[in-house]
């Protein structure tokens, strides 16, 4: 079973960014057509960041670890 509804890498990156937006970790998101050199526009408190697919995938991983790492390590 997979948590991803789309099987290609671009689709998984987009879903990860949409999840971050839905959780309120990022303030906004715009995804441009794939032929753009940096199709991901992520709005953060520091401003608007333009990213390509590789940058967006690493950003998503870092944002999830930063946001949920302490919760995952919490022991009851």
TrEMBL record:
The protein's name in its UniProt record: Uncharacterized protein
Lineage: Bacteria, Bacillati, Actinomycetota, Actinomycetes, Streptosporangiales
